[in-house]
């Protein structure tokens, strides 16, 4: 049975009171614990599949690795269910000690961490582009159709170049695309990361760490996404349709 779908008995109730119970399929969601250098880095709720790409993208965004050679091996470990492999624990062996430089929360004042402080601290550890990349408007207008062509399932979709991935969590889809390009040795400097979900701070963080020139979405963006995009000279475009789009950074 595919790990992307699972069947349950589902009862559909109509406005007239009719009840119809039959088998229905839902998207599978399972945890994935990622360990780097023997230590747990994160536990993600994800759509199973392309987990090694997901781990590479996550580790790049978090500052654990800078290039594909920083990962020596990536393998699944036995899960906790009867000693069988659940494929929900991925152990990454690094070529150098894990020393992420911006994964931990940033100390703030007594009332907490400000958004501006978080953006400034993170941007200081990212490679900032010399200038914003120039985008072709016609390419952006064609973005909704391009995303639809890659949408195999009813899940958030991320696309960059010839790489496309889907996941219940849009950020996981982004990490999978980043990991795919990293493993294939495809530079992302002149690529646009496109997706059909709201772009937040973590998405721009992942894109900037990977070196993307632009992030474009058919949905909206958040305030911290705009701030970080402007700090890192990453073009940020939202509400893309066949008729118009909104440029939040790089206009």
Question: What report would you give on this structure?
Answer:
- The chain has 251 residues and is of the alpha/beta class.
- It folds into 2 domains: 30-94, Roll (Ubiquitin-like (UB roll)), CATH 3.10.20.10; 115-249, Cytidine Deaminase, domain 2.
- The chain has 7 helices and 12 strands.
- The chain has helices at residues 51-62, 115-123, 137-141, 143-150, 170-184, 201-210, 223-231, and strands at 5-13, 19-27, 30-36, 39-46, 71-76, 89-94, 157-160, 163-166, 192-195, 214-217, 235-238, 246-249.
- The strands form 3 sheets. Strands 8-7-9-10-11-12 form a 6-stranded mixed β-sheet, with helices on both faces. A 4-stranded mixed β-sheet has the order 4-3-6-5, covered by helices on one side. The chain has a two-stranded antiparallel ribbon with strand order 1-2.
- β9 (192-195), α6 and β10 (214-217) form a beta-alpha-beta unit.
- The longest helix has 15 residues, at 170-184.
- It is globular and about 60 Å long.
- 37% of the residues are buried.
- Pfam families: FdhD-NarQ.
- Keywords: Cytoplasm, Molybdenum cofactor biosynthesis.
- What's the CATH C level of the largest domain? Alpha Beta
- CATH fold label of the largest domain: Cytidine Deaminase, domain 2
Number of domains: 2
CATH architecture descriptor name of the largest domain: 3-Layer(aba) Sandwich
Using only C-alpha atoms, the radius of gyration works out to: 20 Å
List strands and helices in order, with pairings:
Layout: E1 5-13, E2 19-27, E3 30-36, E4 39-46, H1 51-62, E5 71-76, E6 89-94, H2 115-123, H3 137-141, H4 143-150, E7 157-160, E8 163-166, H5 170-184, E9 192-195, H6 201-210, E10 214-217, H7 223-231, E11 235-238, E12 246-249
Parallel strand pairs: 3-6, 9-10, 10-11
Antiparallel strand pairs: 1-2, 3-4, 5-6, 7-8, 7-9, 11-12
Helix pairs in contact: 1-5, 1-6, 2-7, 5-6, 6-7
């Amino acid at each position: 049975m595919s790990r992307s779908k699972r069947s349950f008995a589902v009862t559909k109730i109509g406005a007239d009171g009719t009840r119809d119970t039959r088998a229905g399929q839902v998207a599978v969601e399972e945890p994935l614990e990622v360990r780097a250098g023997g230590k747990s880095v994160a536990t993600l709720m994800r759509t199973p599949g392309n987990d090694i790409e997901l781990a590479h993208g996550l580790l790049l965004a978090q500052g654990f690795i800078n290039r594909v050679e920083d990962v020596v091996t990536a393998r699944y470990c036995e899960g906790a269910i009867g000693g069988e492999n659940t494929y929900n624990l991925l152990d990454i062996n690094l070529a150098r000690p894990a020393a992420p430089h911006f994964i931990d929360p940033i100390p703030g004042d007594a009332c907490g961490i400000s958004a501006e402080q978080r953006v400034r601290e993170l941007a200081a550890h990212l490679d900032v582009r010399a200038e914003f990349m120039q985008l072709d408007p016609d390419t952006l207008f064609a973005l909704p159709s391009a995303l639809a062509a890659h949408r195999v399932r009813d899940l958030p979709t991320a696309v960059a170049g010839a790489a496309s991935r889907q996941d219940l969590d849009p950020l996981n889809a982004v990490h999978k695309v980043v990991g795919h390009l990293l493993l294939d040795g495809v530079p992302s400097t002149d690529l646009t990361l496109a997706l059909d979900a709201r772009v937040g701070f973590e998405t721009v963080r992942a894109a900037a760490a990977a070196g993307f020139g632009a992030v474009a979405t058919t949905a909206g963006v958040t305030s911290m996404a705009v701030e970080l995009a402007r700090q890192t000279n990453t073009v940020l475009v939202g509400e893309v349709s066949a008729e118009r789009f909104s440029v939040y950074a790089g206009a």
